[in-house]
Amino acid sequence: MSDTPELHRQIEPVITPSAPEPSSSFSPPSRSKRTWLSSGIAPLLVAALVGGLAGHYAGGGSSSGLAINQLNGSPSAAVLPNGKSIPSLIKSVLPAIVSIDVKANGSEDQGTGMIITKSGYVVTNNHVIAAAAGGSGTITVTASGSTKAMAATLIGTNPVDDVALIKISNVSNEPTVVFGNSNALQVGDAVVAIGNALGLAAGTPTVTTGIVSAMGRTVTAGSATSSETLNNMIQTDAAINPGNSGGPLLDSAGAVIGMDTAVAGTLPDGTSAQNIGFAIPVATIQSQLAALKKGESVVTHHAYLGVEIMDDNASIQQQYGLSVSTGALILSVVANSPAARFGLKQGDVITAINGTAVNQAADVQAILSLLHQGDSAKVRISRGSSTLTVKVTLGRTP
Question: What is the pTM of this model?
Fold first, then answer.
């Protein structure tokens, strides 16, 4: 294996905002770029000298002849809006966070994972462990505060929704994260991100804080060989970087409400995006865990409809004059997709599929995950003041 790991991969994305400006044509929102958050970097950090050698005069005043005033108290802790200190929150969660290192075919990728069971099951992003998916690579994890790398095995993968499950070998009674309710999130809620940022040092994760900047984002990413679309993503301004992938986005109670997955990069005109990152809602992850634990691996997508969607709610209903306040609002319909061929339109709100209620965008994905290419789906929609049922023959993701 080469002594110098390859640089992390750059992805060219498209971002669909959750609340486009209203117009008579219901125009879809503008788009930008993003980057995967797995890290193949062994970074070289250069600290600039600021104002001379900082700390050079930190010695006692008597020897230098300088009288220096000094406070001996401890710095005050950063506090979240609910009054909980960030250090105390981090202290309770860190034991269940691991750094992940994947070596395969002479390359190395790094990321983050969350322990979800006492027996050592760990959830992370698929792109973190993708190099080892063929069985030719090795996966190791390092617990926070430790320098000991532990072997792990790949259990199940979902490359399309970018979720994977691995298991730490020969462990028991492991600390675990607590899942929160991502469906209850609101824009402006305080969040904390934890992850193996830049792969700086396994077992010493980076902590950042911010807010939920938007909900229901659709992010389309592509490389030279593949592309995927992730729906209903949480947008945050908490700083996340390569290596954060698979790490938790926490609410102010310390519960996991998302998994850090992507960060916006550079716009087509060369403008750099600032403080825009994306996390997979924990509700989406929970819906996949049973299949992943069985060892199932999704190589091709589940049944394909061909729409970009976001959560409908009372605010969106009022903004666009919709007849319903719950469901999955169609932001755009993919050309030549099943949705386009069978008459679904931008501005429709999906309220049920095959009799199962759709209350939010994640419900559409959960229902389609149980169906297959060629299956028929009765899609109930709200269009203006009318309620329609459209029978769609589902396809396969291009």
Answer: 0.65
